[in-house]
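Thread: "does anyone have the structure for this chain?"

Original post by V.I.:
We have the sequence but no experimental structure in hand. Need at least a predicted one for the grant figures.
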Amino acid sequence: MAQAKRKVDDVFNALGDPTRRAIVHRLARGPLTVSDLAGPLSITLTGVRQHLHVLEASGLVRTEKLGRARMCTFEPKGLGVIESWINVQRSLWERGLGDLRDLLDEDD
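Reply from O.Q.:
Generated one for you, tokens below.
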């Protein structure tokens, strides 16, 4: 259970930063090199690498060395962790709201 919570926290932390969300958004359209990612972000290659490290640790991005370049790819399966978490939360809320609706209907 602690491992699953940590993974959810990692993904939310990774997506909590606007620069990392911009990286994920760009990579969702297709793989890019670190240099290609750095251009429009107005940050250094070192800064991009630091953000990529967080995204890789969360499972949202995969990087691999291809010759002299490092290619970055979005991993949509990484979103499954928070998708599952959201589904559990939705179920809890819907059940609670259903109970409230039943209680209010009893008063009518």
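V.I.: this helps a lot. Residues 10 and 57 are 8 Å apart (CA to CA).
O.Q.: and The helical segments are 2-15, 18-27, 34-41, 45-58, 80-107.
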